[in-house]
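Summary for the lay section of the report: proteins are chains of building blocks that fold into shapes. Here we show the chain for DUF3618 domain-containing protein and then a coded description of the shape we predicted for it.
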Amino acid sequence: MPRDPRQIQLEIDAARESLAATLDQLTYRTSPTRLRAKGQDAVVRWLQTPAGMAAAGAVGLLVTFVVVQRVRHRND
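The coded shape description reads as follows.
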């Protein structure tokens, strides 16, 4: 039995709307600006934890040590 063309068109329209909504969601989720902001927020939150503060302190000490060593070797 053949299908009603109006019903077929309604199904096509519904599928089109669903695909458009999915594409909109993917565009939002993969936006470079949004992903960068999300990553920055995650780093800031982590740096505020005890482990993050310890890691930042260790990196600061390491950078200071490297700079001091380079200055000392430059004067030799």
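Put simply, here is one thing we learned. The chain has a mean pLDDT of 94.
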